[in-house]
Amino acid sequence: MANLVCPQCGSTKLRRSHARGVVEQLKRSLGWQGFRCRNQMCDWRGMIWVEFGSATSKYARYAFLIVAFILLLFLSARFVLFLTEGR
Ligand SMILES: [Zn+2]
User: Fold this and answer.
1) 50-60: per-residue pLDDT in tens?
2) From ligand 1's centre to the CA of 69, what distance in Å?
3) In-domain check, residue 5
4) Gap from CA of 74 to ligand 1 centroid (Å)
5) Residue 38 CA, ligand 1 centroid: distance in Å
6) N or C: where does the chain have the smaller number of CB atoms within 10 Å of the terminal CB?
7) Is residue 72 part of a domain?
């Protein structure tokens, strides 16, 4: 994992926190990870986008590929339709 820093105080002492609520769980499945700053003066809590390569976003990557494939099929079908109707 790349060096993660607190966006508020710049400390690298971050610890993972559990996702709260539906929105955070959804973001977590897309590669975000909940963190909390261990600097007691700061006490920042939020989500940082980790990366696509992490284990938590493995399914998100598959979902992205499937969506991209369907979109490509849809667009090529539209293009063929456009070509055949143009005549
Ligand atoms: Zn902080």
Assistant:
1) 865 555 556 77
2) 40
3) no
4) 46
5) 7
6) C
7) yes
Domain span including residue 22: 14-85
Cα–Cα distance for residue pair 36/39, rounded to 1 Å = 9
Q: Return the amino acid letter for 27.
A: K
Q: How far is the CA of 30 from the centre of ligand 1 (A)?
A: 24
Q: Is residue 57 part of a domain?
A: yes
User: How far is the centre of ligand 1, averaged over its atoms, from the C-alpha of 55 (Å)?
Assistant: 25
Any domain includes 2: no
Q: Residue 13 C-alpha to ligand 1 middle, in angstroms?
A: 8
pLDDT in tens, 71-80: 999 999 999 9
Question: Within a 13 Å sphere around the CA of 10, how many CA atoms are in the beta-carbon half?
Answer: 0
Q: How many domains does the chain have?
A: 1
- In angstroms, rounded to a whole number, what is the distance separating the alpha carbons of residues 59 and 36? 25
